[in-house]
Fold this protein.
Amino acid sequence: MNSAIKNIPLIDSSIMNTPNQNGFTLVELMIVIAIVGIIATVGYPSFINVSQSTYRTAGQSDLMAFAGAMERHKLANYSYQGAAASGANTGMPTVFATYSPSQESASNKRFDLTISSVNTNGTAYTITATPVTGGAMANTGVLVYFSDGRKAWDKNNNGSISADEYCWQC
């Protein structure tokens, strides 16, 4: 056999002296965790605001559908009176679902829909969508729809509608 071939090393000795790096260092991992934490801190409030805006829009849509049911009740009965449970004028409606969004199960409800008032001669009403206590929309304010077409949102959640809250997109 050729002696020159015998002297060729099978493994390069310079490779043997370098440390083996197969993972992340603790510092790299902490930096990634810090970056993810910052992104989550900034992004979460925006996510909540967008979610609540979407839920509120669904509540407004259901309130409008509820208003349509009230109009159908008036066409059939010549009055808005008696549209609530057990023929009452106020409270949970029998003419429409009692919660919003009405397309989902009651366990996912975000608003309770109620007939707040019907005037004495049955020609006007007020219906409301009240956020469910402890739900995703808790403490975001009541949505109100009046039979004359006015819309209100108690945006500051103080229990009364001020002049600047007579809109749903304020």
User: Anything to note?
Assistant: The two ends are 93 Å apart (CA to CA). The chain has a mean pLDDT of 88.
